[in-house]
Amino acid sequence: MAKLLATAQGDVHVTPEGSRAIEWYYDTDTCEFVADQQQIMSAFHLPHPINGIDDLLKHSRTSQIEEIKQKIVDSETSEEDGFLSCCLMPNPGVLVLVDIRFERLNDHEIRGILIPQMCISGLEDIANILDTVFDLPNVGISVADQNLCIIGCNSAFQYQMGYLRDELIGEKTSFFRSEQHGEEFYEQLWKEIDSKGYWNGSLMSRTKNGSNQVHYHSIYRINFISGQTLYFDFCTDISTSLLWKKINAGENRGQFSAFLPPRKEFEEQLVNLAQSSRSKNISVVITFRPAFSSQSRLEQQLCFSDYIMRSRHVSLSGQLSRDVFAICLQTPQCQWLSPLRLIQMVLRGFLADLKNEVGSSVYSTIVEGQTGVAVLGYDAQTAGHAIAHAAQAMVSSSADDRSYFNFYSSELHSELVKRFYLEDFLHKVIENEAVDVYFQPIVEVSTGNVVKFEALARFSNETETFDTQEMIAIIEDLELISALDDVVCKSALSQLPDLQGIYGAEVGLTINRSLNTKLNALQVLQSSFEIILESGVNPSNITIELTETAYFEQDQEHSVALEQIRKLGIDVAIDDFGTGYSSFAYLKEDQFDLVKIDRKFIKDIVVDSTSYNIVKMITELAHKLNVKVVAEGVESEQELNVLTSIGVDYMQGFLFSPAVPLSAFKAKISYETLFDNVVQEQVSESPLLTFCHSNIRRLKQNAPLSLAMEFVNLQPQVSLLVMDSNRCIGLVTKERLEQYLSAEMEANTCTKMKLHVWEHPLSKIMDTEFASVSVDSPVSTIKENINVGCPFPWVLCDSQNEFRGLLTQEDVLSYLASV
Ligand code: C2E
Ligand code: CA
Hints:
Elements: E1 12-14, E2 20-27, E3 32-35, H1 37-44, H2 53-57, H3 62-77, E4 82-91, E5 94-104, E6 109-121, H4 123-134, E7 140-144, E8 150-153, H5 155-161, H6 165-168, H7 183-196, E9 198-206, E10 212-223, E11 229-237, E12 245-246, E13 257-258, H8 263-276, E14 281-289, H9 297-310, E15 314-319, E16 325-332, H10 339-368, E17 370-375, H11 383-396, H12 410-431, E18 436-444, E19 450-460, E20 465-466, H13 468-477, H14 481-503, E21 508-514, H15 521-535, E22 542-547, H16 556-567, E23 571-577, H17 584-588, E24 594-597, H18 599-602, H19 610-624, E25 628-631, H20 637-646, E26 650-651, H21 672-676, E27 698-700, H22 705-714, E28 720-724, E29 727-732, H23 734-747, H24 751-757, E30 771-774, H25 781-787, E31 794-797, E32 803-807, H26 809-818
Helix pairs in contact: 9-10, 10-12, 14-15, 15-16
């Protein structure tokens, strides 16, 4: 570590808090150290430049040097950033409090910052600080020597205990023992102070007037160079926040002590709370009977009561009997999340915080104890019922029930228990890299051969296989999706050689990568990039499917990331195209190699349907831009026929095979014969249809103008059809669309409103007055229509008034020219 601490030049900047942070950098290979010497000299009142940060650290307290060195050594082996806070004495009579932070950039480069916090020069200033600290009005301070005899205290301490200083000096610290805590408890407390150097927690102490008061104590042991040891006790009176009542007169240990409002008061407060927030919040009432240990019942009760009193999660707390506590948690209603999910989240938050705050021994009293939950407005209509139901669920929970919470409603109970179970289960399988990976073939239309396999995660326990989509959603909630994608990617890559053994060396792998994570696309792609490189697999056999592309931003950084990965030969696909927010703009940017059209457009696709037109349009556009098209979820030969006629490049779906594990692959399968029977679907014949305009874009009347714009841009000369099932109900021209948009954009000044214009439905601008011509009319009617001035375009309809085709002026002119 000494190597880390050398000298040099660097930047200085002011941190947001206003303190001056001095940046430093160190290379352990070259011993280059960069920092601003001037800043260091001035911040630490040093007459000379320093030879490194160890030069600074040698000014710390002798007793602290070893501890600091250990911290630095620890940080070298840990992935986490290092942090130290210490008081340096660079000059006699000068003290500087400093924070030192550092991070490892790689195995030989470290960078960090020094933040001098405050500088105290001279004994007078130190005395000033001590005076001020001792004068704090609400923190009692007492000092004891190594024999635990009190040698001093401040005024707040006198006030809290009711004694005058003179009465306390020379007394043992045990003077205040309330007899509520056992002998063993105090022994343990002092043992902890001797081993760790401090103790924090709540204690009940007897004050001068004979009553017991609850204080929160932080007791520190300080060893002086002279060999003297002093104990500093800082305590705050929490009896005002924690209602401390003796239900029965008398002070004997073991009698019922209430720390929180009793049932009646709790219920009254719950009535008010529920009334004031009924429409906004969901109120969850929980009762606890913790499994307090018989030796430290009081201390654990105190600790738990203090926590539920203070917790930011808890809206109300109460004590129903000696060992039964009640709380109310509230969660705001939210239209995006189900009440079940909200309840689960608020319980999860409460438990996580509880664990952090009360320490493992008190936490386990809750987990091992009994709990009951009722939800106001769901399984209880009044506050009284909610408390009673929660208590009933609590007492009926069996000791061997492993779920933390027992719900009064059996439906809620099973749903939430399942969710808790799944979260733990998913955490474990991802952490242990024990996710199963199945492979689904992707077939090339031109050959009928399997060209790659999509790796899909599978989750199952001994008894059940879980729905993948549902698991992925939970994993995304848990912010574990990137970890999952890494695990699946590694596992799939390791199985690829076996698949290639069966399907040939060219067969590839396609891997899902979700962007629904806090990581940005750059980090997500970087991660796949590294795993693929490490695996030794040829990158040109790999495709990455970006799912949740709504999170993909079209900025410079993301373009660079995509470019980098594609340069390696890895293909990038947009998954589930056509759902959510996936934008046509992605196709235009030349950033993707493949587009996977979502199953919802493929299902039951027939010629001339809306899905047909959409798939056709996407395919045509993609091909123009050199992007290949994969149709997902192909289940029938009918779908295969239509998709082949449209010209998609690849197909994937149950028609070929579902996703299966590697063990299911025995021999190479080709699907060539399925494509042998492809029959081109024919649009029905009629004289006028033979030369009418084909491939007309069509949309429903509630389709947004944004989509209409994409369509008319593809075919600007032809009107867009507005359809109501198979009937044409309106036409929209590019001019009409542009005219409307520019007028609306001008009228709306605010950006949000402007964006909203794109969502206006087509029905707002469609032209409902158009010429309708019978599809069965003989060709001779063309001339008649022209003669009577029938306006173009002509909408061809059958006897049911269903749309069959569109004739533009150009279609008719080129027909007339050809006869
Ligand atoms: P996806 O990427 O769209 O994957 C295709 C899904 O469609 C798979 O569902 C597959 O089993 C299913 N499928 C394939 N052919 C057919 C078919 O002909 N008919 C029907 N009805 N379904 C078909 P699965 O495996 O349940 O996966 C669901 C989604 O979960 C995937 O949709 C993908 O978004 C996500 N997913 C699965 N594994 C992973 C993973 O490792 N990482 C990430 N980020 N997402 C994954
Ligand atoms: Ca996929």
